[in-house]
Amino acid sequence: MLRRPRLSFLVVLVIGGAVATIAVWPQLVGIHRLPLVANLLSLRGVSAGALGVLALIVGAVAARRGTWGVSAALALALAAAFLGNAGVLVVRGWGASAVDGDLTVVAWNAYGGGASPESVARLVRDTGADVVSLPETDAFAAAEIVGILAREGVSMRHDTVAAARGGETIPTSILISTALGAYARDASIASTPGLPSGVWRPVDGRGPTLVAAHPMPPLPRVMDQWDAGLRWIAEQCGDPDVIVAGDLNATVDHFAGLGARGGIIGGCRDAAAEVGAGAQGTWPVRLPLALAAPIDHVLVGAGWRAESFSVLDDFDDAGSDHRPIVATLTRR
Predict the structure, then answer these.
(1) Where are the domains of the chain?
(2) Among the four 82, 88, 283, 299, which has the fewest Cβ within 10 Å?
């Protein structure tokens, strides 16, 4: 017959193990897009660190007591949750070597003009970007960026989606190299709800479909709009020649259940995850890369392959709360 401390240990260990499993992979029970869970899941690095500290504290208490009771079982469950979350981050990776490709795509949430046109122009020049998705950048700033680049010999066109119907008046802009030919926004496709996103197609039909996306964040009062925004992105990813870039206010964990035809969301794959850089965090800049939330993405349809992906931390003092990202892509 089991003694009470040993029985308590086994009961708490089983329950704690189940909770730890859900803490590492809430997708298993379909709660990854619920309020609070979605927010905690965004900051997997912070959660892993907190769980590790708690495991050490509770483990120290258990060691002092010297019995296999509740505290020991709880320490093991916390350690399992820490190791599980850390393991996910290790598998996703924190970096990949820069590799040239057919197309360089950049995205940077400029924080409502917090990042100046000069800073964005420097980013475009430094990365050699062909396509730049700029959430929270208005038409005036986009025009100024294009003007600065033109004076430096870089030729780009710009366009802006001013606002989503019935949503926030926070624009999303896109810059497209003139070397890619003329592009026009497909006005037949409605925006993500709450915040504006747009779809641009090549006028001559030759070239990728470009999507500058900025769905709502997963805040309690707008969870339905956030979820609808992710589903909107999945719909655009039905095109194998699509490239989506922007602040998606979601990590790859939140995409679970939205994939199709081998894609992680719709038919798209995540460039960062594809090249082993999926754990690099982009928001907020006050957290290091290993702890920040990887919510800015470049997604590619089946017609494209990601060659490299980087999160740039040398723009942390530029005025935005997001770090810019850059991906190089090759047509399959």
Answers:
(1) 4-92, 103-331
(2) 88
